[in-house]
Amino acid sequence: MSKIEQSWYKPFGLITLLLLPLSALFWIVSTFRKCLYSAKIIKAFECKTPVIVVGNISVGGNGKTPFVLWLYEYLTEQGLSVGIISRGYGGQSDNYPLLVTSVVNAQQAGDEPVLLYHRLKCPIAVGPNRQHNIDLLENNYTLDVIISDDGMQHYKMPRSIECCIVDSERRFGNGFVMPAGPLRETTKRLQNVDIVIENGGEANNSYTLKVSNLRLVNSSDDVKHTVAHAHAISAIGNPKRFENSLEAQGITLLSTHHFKDHYAYTADDFLQFGDDYIIMTEKDAVKCQSFAKPNWYYLPVDAQPTDSVINKLNSLLKEKGILNGL
């Protein structure tokens, strides 16, 4: 994590002060752009399939991907045919939009879409143009609903439901928009989304989900194992949550190593560890499949929303006609 990112979650300091003018400019531009869409001076594109956006208002890991995994499975349990679109951050392909398949790797599509496909084996379209992603899915599949993994601030894309995920531990940092703070939009935006879900929050009066850690899986054979000690490697927004979950399982961490979110690993990054055991996140593991050793493991996670989240989601699905009142 860079010094700027560290400053987001610390008391007001010099770095924050120096970056405030840029944050003011960011806020002015983003607010003006949003107003143009609200006034329909700039119009959203049209699509025939309802879109559910799972996003956030802050930068970094909030538990969005585990919720997308859960949401896909929940919607399919309701009898709906579901596809997913993603920006595919970190991926570099010669052609977009790209349909994720078993032969598409994280270098092409990005780590999160490959993780989603590995788990779900469902229609996933990746690319910087979300309209083209939706068109690709609609031209190749008959879908009842499309989940947009991120894209809450992409106002050109129409959406039926917005689900905003908030990290209950880090929340909104110092409360400033980028680059002085971690926010893409101010917290006022939360008043306009359909449901705000706190990852790890207390149930009380809010909508919450818990991210549960499954047993370690070997990076090369997908078999579940138990490991006593290992180096923890991660390239995610909130590595401390990952490391705490390992220690909670009784694993002794020989060391911890943090890379930039969506970092593209190479085999050279692991030379320092020799033949020691390594544990990484599932998102990291999909980028290391070609050179993973037999003693490298990853920790899958699943989201478990509370009944209040499920009931609210059901109400929204019926209200928007996605479940047709069933």
Automatic annotation (TrEMBL):
PANTHER family: TETRAACYLDISACCHARIDE 4'-KINASE, TETRAACYLDISACCHARIDE 4'-KINASE, MITOCHONDRIAL-RELATED. Pfam families: LpxK (PF02606). Transfers the gamma-phosphate of ATP to the 4'-position of a tetraacyldisaccharide 1-phosphate intermediate (termed DS-1-P) to form tetraacyldisaccharide 1,4'-bis-phosphate (lipid IVA). The chain crosses the membrane at residues 12-30. ATP binds at residues 58-65. Belongs to the LpxK family. Its EC number is 2.7.1.130. The keyword Hydrolase does not apply. It comes from Pseudoalteromonas fuliginea. The keyword Nucleotide-binding applies. GO terms for molecular function: lipid-A 4'-kinase activity. It is an enzyme of class 2 (transferase). This is Tetraacyldisaccharide 4'-kinase. Pathway: Glycolipid biosynthesis; lipid IV(A) biosynthesis; lipid IV(A) from (3R)-3-hydroxytetradecanoyl-[acyl-carrier-protein] and UDP-N-acetyl-alpha-D-glucosamine: step 6/6. Keywords: ATP-binding, Kinase, Lipid A biosynthesis, Lipid biosynthesis, Lipid metabolism, Membrane, Nucleotide-binding, Transferase, Transmembrane, Transmembrane helix. It catalyses: a lipid A disaccharide + ATP = a lipid IVA + ADP + H(+).
